[in-house]
Model the fold of this input.
Amino acid sequence: MRINEIFVSIQGEGPNTGVPTTFVRFQGCNRSVACKWCDTLYAFDPQGGLERSVEDVVNEVVGYRGASGVNNVCITGGEPLMQLDDFKQLVSQLDTRSLDVEVETNGLSVIPRDCDTFVKHWLCDLKLPGSGVPTPTVEWPQYLELRSEDAIMCIAADTGDLDWLEKQLWSLSRPMLELLRAQIYVHPVWGALDLRQIVSWLLGHGALFQSLGVKVRVGTQLHKHIWPVGQRGV
Ligand code: SF4
Done:
């Protein structure tokens, strides 16, 4: 499989924010045009990276656990589900070695539900208009299948993105809302939107979200508060 990089850091996003984590970054993304704010363009080209075997990757991850006790593994990209057969083998083997696995996916690929047993958290992007999607729509069936331990990740570039997300949630019927179990994390494009604007938006709509029964959280990219923006391997 094509792998861009493997490194140990802390998880900067989602339910495991702050948890020491080994990141396995798959090479290649299936977006026709990169998201405007993509911070991993170096993993976009499917031909880039290095060819690695599943066994080789598992051994490296297990080695990091032996050296530093890191038990959480984040499979990310690019888009890891583009290399589905290898992906399935990898999460299965990591599970066999009692590693905790979470997976970041961009929302374009169908999540393989037969891997649920190996994946503790799916972090599934929901792309807002500010990402540059030409005609943004939400494929709700995919999001409604997520579990309560999974996360829908929304990256807002401006307040228009926040308004758009709110409208999408309003458009859901009551039966659909009852199926929406995953937590929704909204975090800013770094440097484009102030965290306080998201907090203000969330507090201003708290009663609405409660009436809809949706769990919306303010998120951030913790690693960008710690290391210089653009630094790789963190
Ligand atoms: S989906 Fe992810 S990897 Fe692909 S362009 Fe967008 S941010 Fe970058």
